[in-house]
Amino acid sequence: MTIDCATCESRMESYVNGTLNDGDRAEVAGHLDHCEPCSEVLKSEYALREALRSLPVMPCPDTVLETIRKETIDAEAGLGKRMVSWPKWFYGWRVPAAVTACLVVLLLLGRPLMFDSQDTSVYYPGDGLEARTLAMLSLVYVAQTIQESEERAFDEVFSGEIPRKVHRIIRDEVPLFGGKSL
Amino acid sequence: MNKKTHYTEYMKRYADRVFSQAVYMLKNRDDAEDAVQHVFIRLWRHMDAIDHEKVEVWLMRVTHNFCIDCLRKRKSGFDTHDALEIDRIPVTADSPEQTCHATETQRVLLEAMESLPERTKSMLLMHYYQGLKYEEIAGLLAVSLGTVKTAIHRGKRQLKTVLSTLYAELSEVS
To answer: pTM higher than 0.80 for the full model?
Structure first.
């Protein structure tokens, strides 16, 4: 049985894809044998298919893959570095601001800290411990934030900029910096 | 396999394809890189929920949606990235003659595709370039099978005309 050009064209896609049943396939093949225009359509179908398939696969840049890995696998594994972005206006002021903040904390809460080890008459065990903990945690937080944002070592930021005694206490007592537990 | 192993495997297998699809859709490498990041970070967040048998289709859907959004923003003037120069697309051919022919074909093809509606272009790339079936495209774009067939048929007709003109010119020259 022969088919007309319209039927042949409607089956062309499936013919090329190889999804026609044997009967339909034989009919299309038979029609193509003697129909010049349909053979041209078939040629152009193959040409387009080939042209689209031959568009090259472009390799995704490694930097992009690395960024993705950092934001997914590494971040979940806790390997990603948490960076703090500071506002530009704060850039030149963050160390003085941090030190001021620490001093305010020390002034408000640090009286037992400054005297508890030297003058037992003003030592209040409960208050002193709380005040010292708060002051130290504040300092540690600020120090960590600065350290993470600029990757500078804690000592670089703070040595000489805060009282030596406070520096020593933090260094010796805060676990993060190698000291014993509070 | 655990989540990380699966994910690494998917990145290895599909990152280039997602990137290429995005480059051809967006004609801009920076935007295509953004697309890959968007798609794979999203994949990571949905690793527990997606059907791993259909991850390829899932990736193509997210890529398609990102590209369409990006093109929409570009049309609204929010995105001012320059378009990719077609000459920068690498060509894989054996001889200089083949390279020349392939470059010309690709250039004409990509230019012709620019005149197609974005959705049709995306469907053609998914079907011929990525090898997705009509049914898969219909599923991922949430349209009927008939819509996909019609769009691809129209797109092909337009591209065939352009290509046949090119091949006629090339055969005259040679």
So the answer is: no
Please determine, for residue B84, whether its predicted confidence score (pLDDT) is greater than 50.
Answer: no
Q: Hey, what are A114's tokens?
A: 């400054």
**Rounded CA gap, A68 and A76, in Å?**
12
Domains and CATH numbers, chain B: 1-84 (1.10.1740.10), 93-174 (1.10.10.10)
Pair A127, A67: CB distance under 8 Å = no
CA distance A48 to B158: 11
Task: Please write the tens of the pLDDT for every residue from B5-61.
Answer: 889 999 999 999 999 989 888 888 888 999 999 999 999 988 888 888 888 889 988
For an interface test with A, which of B123, B129, B166 has the most A Cβ atoms less than 10 Å from its Cβ?
B129
A vs B, Cβ pairs < 8 A, gives 86
CB-nearest to B128 from A53, A56, A71 is A53
Q: Which of B20, B124, B164 is closest, CB to CB, to A57?
A: B20
Whose structure tokens read 């699966």? B6
